[in-house]
Amino acid sequence: MPQDLFSNQDARPDAGLPARVKPVLSEDQAEAWDRLAGALSRAGIDLHDGTVEPPGHAGTVMAVVGKAGSGKTLLLSELTKTLAEAGVEVISGDYEGKKKKERRTLAILAPTNKAASVLRSRGVPATTIHRILYTPVYDPEYERIAEWLAGQGERPVIEGLTDQALDRAKAFYDQMKSIPGALAAAGLRGSDFIRGWKRREDPLDIGFIDESSMLDDRQFEDLKEIFPTLVMFGDPAQLAPVNQSGAMAFDRLPEGQRLVLNRIHRQAEDNPILDLAHALADESLTFEGFERMVEDAARRDDRVVWAERVESDLMARSPVLVWRNQTRIRLIQAFRGAYHAPKDALLPGEPLICDGIELPLKHRKKRIDLEARGLIKGAQVIWLGPGKKPGFSRLHVIGSEDPRVSAASIIKIELPDEEEPFIPYAARMGAAFLHGAAVTIHKAQGSQWGTVQVFAPDLWAAARAGRSEAGVPLWKRLAYVAITRAEHRLHWVVRNRLSRPTGGLTTEDLPKPAATLTLSADEAEA
User: What percent helix, strand, coil does the chain show, rounded to 5?
Assistant: First the structure.
């Protein structure tokens, strides 16, 4: 690999800024970089020289796969920065400027809001797949501000907006690169400047897909239609999408198009959580042997906790991860009981999981409106309170850049040993929600939390069941996914007990929204 790709001397001479220090790559990362650089060169983008040719070159589909700590995110981040320095336009999903015939584009996508927010926290301008499939339609008056912020137009004069308001918008955009956030800083609401959403008609250029183990076949085919050059980043040890027989999208690629990262890097060393995750690769390891490893790790390092009970305080923002639905339902009921939640209503601060959009096909536009605002299946949401109209709820969508939404809601509280859930709030049509204090490990994929509680009795039950997925014992796949959801601390819960909360539920801990996207009654409900 040319050494100057990762030295301090490769800043463009006209940048007027200090050179960007690039990290030294390991041997397997460097090999992956070279292979990807070759594919991008054939597509008309030379990473070494920083030159970009007009579109029209042949594309490809490739994958970078490796377990947690192997450096996939570092490679994705550096590729993104190098492409941007070469002049490739990064498409964020919140606004897309005037199309230029010779432009080259890049979008960094994740399957969920939470997965995208994890990348954004690491400086990668990621968005969700839905936000690329469905693009916003701006009011023409306020689109002039967006064009100016994006460097595609002159500073506008807008009736009702002062120079100070525009200065606030510019300062926000220069720091955060978010058009809705900048317009919110100027005092506008999302409903002022976004008039609707439409399905993307024109293809883009290059797509980087993180957490691609979660891609189902339909999403994969949709993305190949949009991106001639598609690079998937994924973990082969994760759980495959439901109903795909343990196969992931990148499993079907020819060997030459799959780049494997094997080395666990310095930033992941001396991490007891990742040590436990990687220990699961030992074919001879039993569940009992693994629990002894967890107990030993807990004695040595406070980042691993051998927990005798579930902590109810953590459940409000970080769900307990379980395998069985009956466990999930019982833990949710215990959580609600601990906070003295009424049986016929929610408390502000209760967590929810979006279970899909219940709208008929004839209301496709309304479905797009909801999904584009982050209410996609699996989205984590905090209930803020009832909306202004019957059946509506005010919601905070975790991981969304514009998290505050008011939407027609169908909220289902499942009860132990009862087939029909209790429904405290219900519009005729809209976004459906389940309670989110506990979730299945399958639904937790793509998310990360600072502290994660794993309900070990469920994994013991999976081990006793003797099931396998793609030749690997199911309990090991479940344990691997659950453990790697923890960024800083892992609670391995070994008893069916729940602690008392130290205080009441609150919404004060939630970040303040950059913009408020409010759905009207006729938008969200037929």
Answer: 35, 25, 40
d(CA 460, CA 478) in angstroms, rounded, equals: 11
Cβ burial of 271 (10 Å; 0-12, 13-18, 19+) is middle
DSSP summary character for residue 216: -
DSSP 426-455: E-SSEEEEEE-SEEEHHHHTT--EEEEEEE
Inter-residue contact 196 to 365 (CB < 8 Å): yes
pLDDT class of 513 with cuts at 50, 70, 90: low
The H or E element spanning position 197 is strand 194-199
Dist CA 525 CA 466 (whole Å): 46
Query: pTM of the full predicted structure?
Result: 0.78
- Sign of the alpha-carbon dihedral angle for 441, 442, 445, 447: negative
pLDDT tens, residue by residue, 65-87: 999 888 899 999 999 999 999 99
CB atoms within 10 A of CB 139: 15
Round to whole Å and give the CA distance between 298 and 38. Answer: 45
HSE, CB side, 13 Å, CA atoms: give it for residue 73. Answer: 21
CA–CA gap between residue 523 and residue 526 (Å, rounded) = 8
Closest CA to 503 of 316, 305, 321, 309: 316
Instruction: Find where tokens 């709820």 sit.
Output: 393
- pLDDT tens-digit profile of 224-260? 988 999 999 999 988 877 666 667 889 889 988 999 9
Alpha helices in 177-311 (DSSP H): 179-185, 190-193, 217-226, 272-279, 287-300
- The pLDDT assigned to 394 comes to 94
Residue type, 407: A
Specify whether the CB–CB gap between 108 and 90 falls below 8 A.
yes
CA distance 169 to 161: 11
Average pLDDT score over residue span 252-277: 82
Amino acid occupying residue 431: A
pLDDT confidence bin for 518, thresholds 50/70/90: very low
Helix residue ranges per DSSP H, 256-303: 272-279, 287-300
Cα of first residue to Cα of last residue in the chain, in angstroms, is 58
Q: What is the DSSP letter of 112?
A: S
Q: How far is the C-alpha of 30 from the C-alpha of 33, rounded, in Å? A: 5
**Cα dihedral angle (437, 440, 445, 449), rounded to 10 degrees?**
30
